[in-house]
Amino acid sequence: MITTDFVPGSPCWIDIGARDVAATVDFYGKVFGWSHQPAPGAEEMEYGLFRQDGKTVGGIGRLDEEGARQAWMIYFATDDVEAAAKKVEQSGGAVRVRPMGDDDMGRMAQFTDPQGGQFAVFQGGMGIELVDAPNGLCWTELYTPDKAGALAFYGGLFGWRAQDMELPGGGGTYTMVTPAGQPEERMHGGLMEADPGMLAATGGRAYWHPVFAVADCDATLAKLTEHGGRVVYGPDDTEGVGRLAVCLDQSGEADFVVLKPASRAG
Predict the structure, then answer these.
(1) What mean pLDDT is predicted for residues 118-137?
(2) Is 265 a residue whose pLDDT tops 70?
(3) How many CB atoms lie within 10 A of CB 56?
(4) How far apart are CA 197 and CA 71, in angstroms?
(5) What is the DSSP letter of 191?
(6) Among 221, 200, 199, which Cα is nearest to 212's?
(7) Cα–Cα distances in Å, from 116 out to 77, 90, 144, 206, 244?
(8) Which of 41, 89, 181, 202 is the most buried (most CB within 10 A)?
(9) Of 18, 8, 31, whose CA–CA distance to 87 is shortest?
(10) Using the 8-state DSSP alphabet, how is residue 62 labeled?
C-alpha cells in the first residue's frame, strides 16, 4: 500500500504534462471527480493541483518538451536529490532535469533509467495527500524491456526489496517492490517485462504509469469512454488484486490503470 509518510524510495508525488491543460483538467475531473486548483506563481507553466475531497491527488502542467508524449510522471521520495542524481549517472541512467528547488518548497530532479523509463525524485515534506483510497493513487507500475536490468538499477538507487508473483494463465512473472526496511504490506508497485507491442507507444522504451483506485471499475470506464478516453485492456478480474483496466486519457497518449481493489469488493 502507498502511504503519506514518504519513506525513501516510496512514491510521493505524481503529475502529468499535458498538451492541452484545460482539456486534460476537464477529462480527469469528469472521470474521477477531481477539482483543479491553479498553483500560485506557476501561471506561466499552467501548473496546478488535482484535488479530491479537499486532499491533493497530484499535479498538472503544460507539456513543452518537443517530441514528448503526454504522460504521467511518478516521483519517489529521497533524502538527497544530488546524491540520487550522481547514483543515477553512475548506474547507467541519465539526468533529464538537474536538481532544483529550495528547502522551503522541496527539491526535485527528473531522470531516465537505462531502459528509457522516465521518473523523478523529490526531497521535502510535501506530497500527495489522497492515497490508497477511491480516486487516489494506490500503486505504481513499470513496463520495461529488461526487468532484470531495471531491478538492478532501481534496487541500487532506492534499495527496493523485490518479490516475484506468477501471473495467471502463464502470463509470466510480475515483480512487486517494497521500500527498503519496510514490511511487506508497504509494497508500492510492480515491474513487468513487456513485449514490443506493449512498448509501442514509447518506441520500445520502458515507462511508468500510475494505478488509481476506484469504487466501481465499470462505472469509471463508462465515464472515461464517454469523455474521450479509451480502454486498451480489460476490464478484467484478477484474483487477489481486483477488477482493473488499462486506459488512455483523452489525448490518446497518457496511460494509467483503474482498479477496484479486491479488498473493497462487495
Answers:
(1) 94
(2) no
(3) 18
(4) 18
(5) E
(6) 221
(7) 20, 15, 8, 5, 26
(8) 202
(9) 8
(10) E
Q: How many CB atoms lie under 10 A from the CB of residue 32? A: 19
Residue 172 has pLDDT above 60, yes or no: yes
Angle (nearest 5°) at CA 110 between 33 and 98: 135
Name the one residue in this structure whose C-alpha cell is 532484470. 148
Stretch (H or E) spanning 133: none
Which residue's C-alpha cell is 537505462? Answer: 114
Nearest-angstrom CA–CA distance, 24 and 180: 35
- Would the pLDDT of 23 be above 70? yes
Mean pLDDT (the chain) is 93
User: For 80, phi and psi rounded to 5 degrees?
Assistant: -155, 100
Distance separating the N- and C-terminal Cα atoms of the chain = 20
pLDDT band at 105 (very low <50, low <70, confident <90, very high): confident
Residue entry with cell 550522481 = 86
